Amino acid sequence: PPPPPPHTHTQSLELNKTGSSYTLILANCLYAEKSYQFLEKFLHNTKTHYNAELEKVDFISYAEEAHIWINKWVEQHTNEKIKDLLAVGIVDSLTRLDLVNVTYFKGNWEKKFEGTATRELPFQLSKQNASKPVQLMHQKAKFPLAFIPDMKCQILEMPHVGKELSMLIILSNEIADNMTGWRSCDGKVVHKSFVEMNEEGTEAAAATAAVLVDCILPLASFVADHPFLFFIQHKPTHTIVFCDDTYQSP
């Protein structure tokens, strides 16, 4: 069958339904220089597909005030977990449009970890045996697990309560010195994130993120004691709502 139209999954996300066992907030806003005109089709599409309102501001005369206003909006929509997304100078008198996207998620594991099993162990940071002591959680349970030989990695799925959202963890077989081959960033894109994982569940917030992974197989040992990537996926729509990594150490 032909692929679904663009934005289909974004539109079909049902957030914070009555009785939901998690909190998931996706918010978008367009901050536009008030003296500029934007195509009606562009404004219609961003409103229809992403519920992104157009907020007119005076970047030319009041760039610093706009910078503060945008940071406050991000802070409010991430339960105050993301502060000062835009550094001083990112927004200036030449700015014409600032597209802002935020994600906030909080949910409990379907299979919780016992706090008594958590202990301090070394987290390997590099091939040169550099490590950092961290609190590593532990449990024996069955989770979907995949081995990807071509990528030399494992992928573990850990469902949250209700099974609508899951965390996908990509763990390389070997420790990499950097993230070459995993992710690239270009242009003036600013990203900032907050993640807290404990025995009860996950709390995460971010400015922007999107990748897709989908692979599942049976039980084996999975030890995340070195850098890994992780994603939170909305299962009904296969939408990645959050992604981050531990390459800067937990």
TrEMBL record:
Which residue intervals define the domain Serpin in the entry? 7-250
Listed GO molecular functions?
Answer: serine-type endopeptidase inhibitor activity
According to its UniProt record, where is this protein located? Cytoplasm
Query: One Gene Ontology cellular component annotation?
Result: extracellular space
Q: Name one Pfam family in it.
A: Serpin
List UniProt keywords, sorted A-Z: Acetylation, Cytoplasm, Protease inhibitor, Serine protease inhibitor
Q: What family does the entry list?
A: Belongs to the serpin family. Ov-serpin subfamily.
Q: How does it assemble?
A: Forms a complex with the monomeric form of beta-tryptase.
What protein name applies here? Serpin B6
List the source organism. Electrophorus electricus
